[in-house]
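Subject: design request, 319 residues
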C-alpha cells in the first residue's frame, strides 16, 4: 500500500481531498497533521475529525500543528470556506477535540519518517508552516520521504488571494520559501492556475453532489457557502480560464494517490518571493537556471481528466 501523511488546513477542498484518499483501497493514511489556514487551528482539527467520522475512520490519528505562520501572521479564507472552514453548517455531533493526539504535528511527522524511511508520500494542502518547522528541526526529514505533493503557488503569476499570490503561499510565504529550498525529495506542485485549467463544469458538479449518498450530501452541504462566493463576479474573474468548479487540493491528492493522473510537468527550480510589495508569496519558476539550484521541482501542468474524474467520483460513493 502507498503510505500517506496528509498536512491540511481543513477547509472544504481539503475535506474532499481527505475523503478521496480514504476512498482509495491502495492507500494507507498514517496520520493527518493540522495547520491554521483556511480557518483557525481548532476548527481545522475539528473539521478533520468530522470528515473522519463521516467516513468511519476515526482510527486515523490527527495531530495539532502550528496555529500561525512562521512570522506570526494569521490569514483565513472565511469568505470562501465559511468561518468554521466547512461552510458554517452546524454539526451537533462533531467529535470532540479530546480525540486529537497529544504529540505535536512536527514530532509526529519526524516520527513517521523514521519509522517508514523512503516510503511516505507527504501531501500538503495548506500553508507550509508545519513542513518548514519540521525541516528546520530535522534537516534530513525530506530525504526520509518518498515524495512531496503540494497544492499551492502559481505558475503564470495569477493569484486568488493577491493579484499574483495563491492562498497557501500568501498565508505563509517564509514557510513556502523554506520548503521549496530545503526539501530535497521529489516534489510535485499543483498550482492555482493548473487547478483552474482542469476545472469541472457546473453540470458535472450538480450530478456529483446529487448522488444521494451520505458523502455526496456532506459535500453538497459544506460547499454551498463557497458556491455563492464562486459565482460572484470577483471570483469568476479570479478563476483562470473562466467559471467552473475547482477543488484545488484534490489535484495534489490525486497525483499522490495515482501518479499516472499527472501527464505533463515542468521540471525546474522554484522559489517564492518573500519581499515584493505586490508579489509577496508569488511562486517563481526558474526556467533559465538563474538560481543554480540543485533541487528541481515538478510543476504539474496537465493531468488525465478521465482518471481525475474517476477519483473525484469515488470520493462520494459508498456510505
Ligand atoms: C488553496 O487555498 C485554500 O483556500 C484551498 O483550500 C486550497 O488549498 C487554493 O488556493
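Subject: RE: design request

Done. Sequence follows.
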Amino acid at each position: 500500500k502507498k503510505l500517506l501523511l496528509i498536512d491540511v488546513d481543513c477547509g472544504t477542498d481539503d475535506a474532499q481531498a481527505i475523503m478521496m484518499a480514504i476512498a482509495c483501497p491502495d492507500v494507507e493514511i498514517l496520520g493527518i497533521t493540522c495547520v491554521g489556514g483556511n480557518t483557525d487551528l481548532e476548527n481545522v482539527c475539528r473539521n478533520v475529525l468530522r470528515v473522519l467520522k463521516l467516513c468511519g475512520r476515526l482510527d486515523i490519528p490527527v495531530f495539532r500543528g502550528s496555529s500561525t505562520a512562521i512570522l506570526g501572521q494569521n490569514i483565513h479564507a472565511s469568505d470562501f470556506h465559511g468561518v468554521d472552514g466547512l461552510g458554517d453548517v452546524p454539526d451537533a455531533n462533531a467529535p470532540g477535540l479530546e480525540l486529537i493526539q497529544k504529540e505535536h504535528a512536527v514530532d509526529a511527522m519526524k516520527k513517521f519518517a523514521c519509522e517508514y524511511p523512503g516510503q511516505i508520500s507527504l501531501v500538503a494542502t495548506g500553508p507550509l508552516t508545519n513542513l518548514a518547522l519540521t525541516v528546520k528541526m530535522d534537516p534530513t526529514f525530506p530525504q526520509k520521504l518518498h515524495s512531496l505533493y503540494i497544492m499551492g503557488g502559481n505558475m503564470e503569476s495569477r493569484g486568488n488571494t493577491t493579484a499574483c499570490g495563491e492562498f497557501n503561499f500568501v498565508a505563509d510565504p517564509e514557510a513556502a520559501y523554506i520548503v521549496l529550498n530545503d526539501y530535497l525529495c521529489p516534489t510535485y506542485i499543483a498550482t492555482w492556475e493548473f487547478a483552474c485549467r482542469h476545472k469541472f463544469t457546473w453540470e458535472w458538479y450538480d450530478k456529483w453532489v446529487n448522488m444521494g449518498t451520505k458523502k455526496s450530501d456532506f459535500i453538497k452541504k459544506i460547499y454551498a457557502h463557497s458556491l455563492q462566493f464562486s459565482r460572484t463576479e470577483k471570483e469568476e474573474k479570479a478563476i483562470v480560464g473562466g467559471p467552473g468548479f475547482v477543488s484545488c487540493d484534490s489535484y495534489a491528492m490525486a497525483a499522490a494517490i495515482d501518479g499516472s493522473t499527472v501527464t505533463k510537468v515542468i521540471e525546474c527550480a522554484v522559489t517564492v518571493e518573500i519581499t515584493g510589495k505586490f508579489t509577496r508569496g508569488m511562486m517563481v519558476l526558474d526556467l533559465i537556471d538563474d538560481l543554480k539550484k540543485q533541487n528541481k521541482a515538478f510543476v504539474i501542468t496537465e493531468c488525465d481528466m478521465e482518471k481525475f474524474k474517476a477519483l473525484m467520483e469515488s470520493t462520494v460513493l459508498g456510505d
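The mean pLDDT is 95.
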